[in-house]
Amino acid sequence: MGTEKQEELLQIKNLAISFYNKSGEVQAVRGISYTLHKGEVLGIVGESGSGKSVSSHGILRLTPDTGKVKSGEILFHGKDILKMSRKELQELRGNKIAMIFQDPMTSLDPLFTVEYQLNESLKKHTSLDAQARKKRMLELLTLVGINQPERRVKQYPYEFSGGMRQRVMIAMALSCDPELLIADEPTTALDVTIQAQIVELLKELKEKLGMAIIFITHDLGVVSDICDNIMVMYAGKVVEEGTSRQVFYERKHPYTEGLLSSVPKLDQKKDEKLKPIKGNPPDMSHVRPGCAFAPRCGCAMHICVKEEAPMCELDDTHKVSCWQVVRHEMEEQKR
Ligand SMILES: Nc1ncnc2c1ncn2[C@@H]1O[C@H](COP(=O)(O)OP(=O)(O)OP(=O)(O)O)[C@@H](O)[C@H]1O
């Protein structure tokens, strides 16, 4: 998937991650694969519990102790992160790959000024001297759209609004000049206008700095504008992937369709009602055979509850795992 000729930055191959608790195994991620090229933006979309965060946190080996990578490879510039030493991993975290979260306070300490925190981050990740760090701090704050950086840098996180705090967190993440930024629901807690501003900022940064971004969200509407490619996850698996245009305008999986109908669009008409997907995602500690979405799917056939559909390659970039699509493709071939 992705733009040709560009260098491959990250390759995930057949990654499976499970948690183990008293009631057994929770199969959070069940064999996902994708490739991210340099400077590319990939959206990972799906409802809560679909495995977006677990798979992405796994890239930095941030899987909690109760979890285990069961299989797979996570290649960064061709080198398997899962086999890296502690030292190599430290070098990677924050230097090559940075992460931002839904709640900026995960990364910001309420007890220290922004200046102190940015300075510490620059000390850790760069060899700049004190004067150069001061200059870089102001540059970073300006880069993320914070006005009067000389004044604001002296303030504490609580003195910033939600959207502005998110900008500070992005500045912190950028302090090490990452090649890849993992953004885990960075706009979810913000109101719609601010959400759009943060997405716009990330888009500008991607263009200016050329970094790749993995943008995790449950809201397909949010990522339409920024992503090159989109991967739709359900119950720990990829059910559809393609370019942003394909997923929006040529989507084939009923789950993708459901996701799009359940979120407000920017041009939503007043009388146009949102249609939430009926039912709930499955319990991943009791995975049943067949397509995990079948019990909620309006188009489910007999085979859907028995067997999982193969990943159908509609073209070089567009792939879907759905028996309806398989059937349609077979009928097309017969003609
Ligand atoms: N520490 C944990 N222990 C046990 N199960 C976990 C743990 N973390 C996640 N899970 C399970 O793994 C599955 C995937 O969770 P994940 O957080 O990746 O989903 P998500 O798509 O990112 O949703 P959300 O947006 O709610 O975080 C879920 O079934 C979840 O309950």
UniProtKB/TrEMBL annotation:
The organism's place on the tree of life at top rank: Bacteria
Keyword Protein biosynthesis belongs to the record: no
Keyword Transmembrane helix: no
Pfam family name, one: ABC_tran
Record-linked SMART domains: AAA (SM00382)
Primary location group: membrane
All residue ranges annotated as the ABC transporter domain in the record: 10-260
Matching Gene3D superfamilies: P-loop containing nucleotide triphosphate hydrolases
Alphabetical UniProt keywords: ATP-binding, Cell membrane, Membrane, Nucleotide-binding, Transport
Protein localization: Cell membrane
Membrane topology: Peripheral membrane protein
GO molecular function, one term: ATP binding
PANTHER family for this protein: DIPEPTIDE TRANSPORT ATP-BINDING PROTEIN DPPD, OLIGOPEPTIDE TRANSPORT ATP-BINDING PROTEIN APPD
UniProt similarity note: Belongs to the ABC transporter superfamily.
Name of the protein in question: ABC transporter ATP-binding protein
Source taxonomy: Bacteria, Bacillati, Bacillota, Clostridia, Lachnospirales
